[in-house]
Amino acid sequence: MRTLRRIQWPLVVWLIVVWVLLWGKVTAGNVLTGLAVGVVLCLAFPLPPLELELRLHPVGLARFAARFVADLTVAGLRTVAQILGPGPLPCAVLAVPLRSRGDLMLTATAVAVSAVPGSAVVELQRSTSTLFVHVMSSRADAASLEQARDEVRRLERLVVRAFGTRAEIAELAGRPGTDPS
């Protein structure tokens, strides 16, 4: 009985879906075999419990989506201009300390930053909540590099206000217990 409690059933269901997709047919045999494989994998390779504290804030989500689409467009055009333009391509790797500490917010921020053309997350240091971001810049001066850091921090604020808990939003704003949205 204790063994059954260690199994993460949502993960088993996902593994069943993947198993059936790999076989290409939905049959009782494929589903049962997928169930057996999923249970064995969960028992053989136990994962820590997933604490998903995701909240959807419609206004924050709309702001994030609008700004993200704008960022994608502008950064794509800027990247094309830099690649096709004359001269060397100035690049840098920046350390950007983030304010959010939650794994989900760090991951979502890293994914959003990497999706924008001209930037890529090289490393995420979980212990210090620091993103190391490779950026292409039109200039390699201190002001443009600080602007790139500010863009990452702005994207972090938008991500947290779109998906974070009230505590994460308040922590980001520096006002414990309040919701800045």
UniProtKB/TrEMBL annotation:
Keywords assigned by UniProt, alphabetized: Cell membrane, Membrane, Transmembrane, Transmembrane helix
Q: Where in the cell is it found?
A: Cell membrane
Bilayer topology term: Multi-pass membrane protein
Q: Known NCBIfam families for this protein? A: PRK08965.1-5
Q: Which family does it belong to?
A: Belongs to the CPA3 antiporters (TC 2.A.63) subunit E family.
Q: Which PANTHER family match?
A: NA(+)/H(+) ANTIPORTER SUBUNIT E1, NA(+)_H(+) ANTIPORTER SUBUNIT E1
Single GO MF annotation: monoatomic cation transmembrane transporter activity
Q: What is this protein called?
A: Multisubunit sodium/proton antiporter, MrpE subunit
Task: Using the UniProt record, give the first listed, main subcellular location.
Answer: membrane
Please give the organism. Answer: Actinacidiphila alni
Transmembrane stretches, by residue range?
7-24
Asked whether the keyword Membrane is assigned, the reply is: yes
* Pfam families in alphabetical order: MNHE
Any one annotated GO CC term = plasma membrane
